[in-house]
C-alpha cells in the first residue's frame, strides 16, 4: 500500500492527478440521493461503487461537493493528511445541537490536537483499567436486570447500559447526586436521533426558522431544546459539586478540571459541558448498535455461536470473543461511513485532486465489503481475525488518523462483557429468523427490530476454567 500523503506541498506524483470534476456519480436530485442513502445506506453505496468506481460523487451534503472513498489505500491517504489540509469539525455539524462548538468533535488543527492530548489519559492506562473493571461489573448487573422468558427488543436495555458506562468514564466513582435526573434527560434528548430532525443543522438557521421548526411538535425539536436547557443546568450542578468536593481522580471530569487552554486558563463551563456531551453522544448510540448487530449475527450463525459458547464455557481465553466483536464491527459498522473531511487545502487522493469546497467521505461499509480485502464479505466469520489484528485502513469502524475514536477500547470491552454475560447466563431464543435491516438513528445504523430476543435462563451454569483446575 502506498502510505504517502500527497498534498501539494510534497513531491510530484508519477502521473498527473485528474481533477475531482472528472469523478462520476448519480445524476439524480439531492433529495433522491438523500432518501436512497437513508433507506438503504449500504446497498445504495454499493450500487454507486459498481457503477462509478472506487471514488464517486454524491450530492448529500448541502453546500459541498462530496466524494466517497472506498479503497483502503485512499482511506489511508485521507487519514494521514495534515490537520490543516482536511478538517472534521464541519462533518459533525448535524450533531452540534447536542455537543456545541467547543468540544473535540467540533475542533480542528492545533486546538483539537491539544485537547485530545490532554483528555487521552482519561481513556488509557490506569483510567482505562478502572473503567474496564467497572464495565465488567456493570455488564453483570445490567444483564441480570433484563427481562427473561419473553421476547423483547434488547436495544433500549443495551442503550441504557452504554449511558451508564459513559457516566463511569466521565464521573468515575463520584456519581453526581443529580445522576438519576440527568440520565433521564440525556435519554430523552437522544430520542431525537430517531427523528429526521436530528440531521437538521439548527445552528445554521435563523432564530425564527428554529422557532417554526419547534412549532412542528412531531419533529421533537421543541422537547429536545427544553431538555437540553435542563441538561445544561444539571451538568453545571454536577461539575460544581465535584469542584467543591475537591476529590481527585483519573476520570474524565477530574482530568478536564485540571486542564488549561493556550492562555493558561482552565476550561470554561461551556467547554466542560460540550466535552461531556460529546462523550454521551459519541459513546452510547454507537456501542449500543454494535452490541445489537453482534447479537443479530450470532443468533443467525449457529456454528459461530457454538464455537463462542465453547470458548466462554470451557476455556479462560477470549480470543474467539475478540474476533467475533471485530467481525461484527466489520460486517455492520455502526457508522457505515465515518466523519466526512472538509478539504481546506488541495489534496491528491488515489490519483484525484480535491480542491477546497469539497469533502471526502470514507465509507467503512464499502471498505469492509470489498471482496478483494475480505473474501466472501457478507459471511459472518470471526475466523478472519483469529491471530491477526485488524488493519488500520481496511477495518475502520472507529475511523482513523487524528480523530480516531477516543472510546474504541472501552467500546470493545463493553461489547465483549455484554456478550460474555449474556451467553454465560442465558439461552438466546430468536423468535424471528428474518434478517434485521438497518435503520438510522442520526449517523448511526441500528437493527430495525432492535435485536429482538427472548432470554431464557441457562439450565446449567457455565463452567469456567480456573487456576485451581489446572
Ligand atoms: C462501537 C462503538 C463506537 C463506534 C463504532 C465509534 C465510532 C467512531 C467514529 C467512526 C468516530 C469518527 C472517527 C473518524 O471519522 O475518523 C468516532 C469518534 C469519536 N468517538 Fe467513537 N465510537 C464508538 C464508541 C465510542 C465510545 C464508547 C466513546 C467514549 C468513551 C467514543 C468517543 C468518541 C470521541 C470523543 C470521538 C471524537 C474523537 C476526536 O474528534 O478526536 N466513541 N467514533
Automatic annotation (TrEMBL):
- What is this protein identified as? Cytochrome P450
Organism of provenance:
Streptomyces halobius
**Similarity annotation:** Belongs to the cytochrome P450 family.
Q: Region Disordered: which residues?
A: 1-23
Q: Where is the composition biased (Polar residues)?
A: 1-10
Q: Which CDD domains match?
A: CYP110-like (cd11053)
InterPro entries xrefs? Cyt_P450, Cyt_P450_E_grp-I, Cyt_P450_sf, Cytochrome_P450_monoxygenase
Pfam family of the protein (one)? p450
